[in-house]
Design a protein that fits this description.
2 domains; Alpha-Beta Plaits; alpha+beta; 5 helices; two-stranded antiparallel sheet; 6 strands; 4-stranded antiparallel sheet
Length: 166
């Protein structure tokens, strides 16, 4: 499969990872076997890493988790820069994502999931802030998600407000 079709394949799987190889083959003009082989190769090369489901947890009763974004100011180390501290932060199971940022007053942005606000606070004060390279942190709790991974999570009800014009 050529690179152009391979990119199209990746976009299709990114949009709907439950799509069958047969469906993808029809869309790309390829055989089912060619699609299956391409997917297997992309998985082996770790281009395709996971097939996740996007769950709108706000619609699940008694969802026990709190999500936070934490900005972290870090002192980079000689020869390893930010990588060493980022790799240490990645090892914590409550950390869902770590990003190196540019153009901000902080260096790393962390997405964290905890059972309570207290658990998140304890993570910051007892685990994160105690790392040698960490200079400061700023924690932002996520109150509501409107859109995630390109998917709008809110049902749009018709706006029933009366239009007022001067």
């Amino acid at each position: 499969m050529d690179r152009v079709k391979q990119r199209e394949l990746l976009h299709l799987l990114e949009e709907d990872s439950r799509m069958s190889a047969e469906q993808i083959g029809k869309m790309l003009g390829e055989t089912t076997e060619a699609v299956e082989a391409a997917i297997a190769a992309l998985e082996a090369d770790k281009v395709i890493v996971k097939y996740p489901a996007l769950v709108n947890w706000e619609r699940v009763e008694d969802h026990p988790y709190v999500n936070a974004m934490i900005d972290v100011k870090v002192t980079p180390k000689r020869d390893v820069g930010f990588d060493e501290v980022a790799e240490r932060i990645c090892r914590f199971p409550e950390v869902k994502a770590v990003y190196l940022m540019s153009g901000a007053s902080y260096d790393l942005s962390i997405v964290l999931e905890g059972k309570t606000m207290r658990e998140v606070a304890n993570f910051v004060s007892q685990k994160l802030a105690t790392l040698d390279s960490v200079v400061s942190t700023a924690t932002h709790f996520i109150l509501k998600r409107y859109k995630h991974d390109g998917i709008e999570l809110e049902d749009r009800d018709e706006d029933r407000r009366m239009v007022v014009t001067p």
